[in-house]
Amino acid sequence: MALGQVGSLLPHVVVPSVLAQYLIPEWHLSGAEAGLLAGAFAAGYMVSVPVLATLTDRIDARTILIWGSALSAFATLMFGILAQGLWSGAAIWGLAGIGFGGAYMPGLKALTDRLSHGNASRAITLYTSFYSFGVGLSFLVAQLAAERWGWRSAFAVTALGPLAMIAVCFLLKPVKPHPHKGKLLNFAPVVANRPAMGFIVGYGAHCFELYGMRTWIVAFWTFVTMRNSGASILSPIAISVIFSVMAMPSSFLGNEIAIRIGRHRAIVSIMIVSAIVAVAIGAMAGHSEWALLPLMALFAISIPADSGALTSGMTLASNPRYRGATMALHSTVGFAAAALGSWGVGVALDVAGGAQSPSGWMAAFCLMAAAVLVGPLALILSRKEEP
Predict the structure, then answer these.
(1) Does 177 map to a domain?
(2) CB under 8 Å to 23, separation ≥6 — which residues?
(3) Strand residue runs (E) in the chain
């Protein structure tokens, strides 16, 4: 399942990968428009996942996973063939997000339905940490394909990835859920579960920061490179891939710390560190790569370190009868915040001087820092003593 997810994620950041070098100049996009285009994926995901993830309480998640992966592959291919500007691109990329809505959380549900409770925490962290590996591979493949064959080819190549998850699905044994009676989209029992809601809101704060950075990392390092007369220790491709791949061990480490000292304490500490590092990067945006690289490495570790703990905390705090609905709300809040993060960072850049200005990047990183600090507040307010 973890390897299948890597395939599902191959199209995931193709738009951010080609945004700064190809789409912004070719389609004459402002920062806000570029953020809107990239955020359309998260918006499509946000619209679909409440229905698709909740359905996994009633039918085998494997079925949804197959169809979601197929739609993701198709829409990614269509972007490369048909997209001609902001609105056509956003519509098609939103459709790809709808497909991913049938792939990520239904994939997690398909996994947890086949695990014993004792195996859940580390298995969920393994699955979620492979998310970062898949994103890193997406950055690498998309940028290399765009450089060699043009940006449209990047979509054609990465559209093949979700076929791997479809193949994995046929290896899974069927599982029949035990559906509860009631409305399909009844989130009242989930909202009433305060411990789970703390993790859900915290996940939203995490996703705002993560996708704000993930959408704009190539543009940011392009700015840093140009400030250093085009001579760079690491290219934007290398930075984006390394930044993403470092998230995998970081997520494992964060979850292991959470198991030992408690999830709330671990997540709150990690989020506060991440906010401090974000402000430091913003303040140093106009400085040399040598000054920024250590901070970027620390940011690459701190941003995803809470991811596995947040998702496993939500899963274990959920009522088993409403686990699909809980995962649905978790993903809806997370990807709504992700869409806002992609767009919000673009707006901050526009307002504060643009993507070629240190002041623009200072505003962008301060916005990410402010957003992630919502997480500790939510966890503290929902605090329940852990066994």
Answers:
(1) no
(2) 15, 29, 34, 37, 89, 151
(3) none
**Is 374 within a domain?**
yes
Asked if residues 251 and 132 have their Cβ atoms less than 8 Å apart, the reply is yes
Task: Let me know if residue 255 belongs to a domain.
Answer: yes
Residues with Cβ within 8 Å of 225's Cβ and at least 6 positions away in sequence, in order, are 231, 232, 235, 236, 289
The better pLDDT of the pair 125, 26 is held by 26
What single-letter amino acid sits at 104?
Y
pLDDT score recorded for residue 387: 42
Determine the structural domain holding residue 201 and report its residue range. Answer: 2-172+185-381
Is there a contact between 173 and 32 (Cβ–Cβ < 8 Å)?
no
Cα–Cα–Cα angle for 334, 269, 328, nearest 5°? 20
CA distance 98 to 75: 9
Give residue 208's pLDDT.
Answer: 95
Tokens of 79: 């972007």
Question: How many CA atoms, within 13 angstroms, populate the side-chain half-sphere of residue 268?
Answer: 14
User: Quick check: is 180 in a domain?
Assistant: no
Helices 236-245 and 194-227 sit at what angle, rounded to 10 degrees? 160
Q: Can you tell me the distance from the alpha carbon of 271 to that of 33, in angstroms, rounded to the nearest whole number? A: 28
pLDDT at 121: 66
Domain CATH code at residue 40: 1.20.1250.20
Q: For residue 228, is pLDDT > 80?
A: no
- Per-residue DSSP letter, 119: G
pTM for the predicted model, two decimal places: 0.80
- The count of structural domains within the chain is 1
Contact 31, 355 (CB under 8 A): yes
- C-beta of residue 205 within 8 angstroms of C-beta of residue 371: yes
**d(Cα 131, Cα 129) in Å, to the nearest integer?**
5
**Strand blocks (E) in 13-57:** none
Q: What is the pLDDT of residue 117?
A: 62
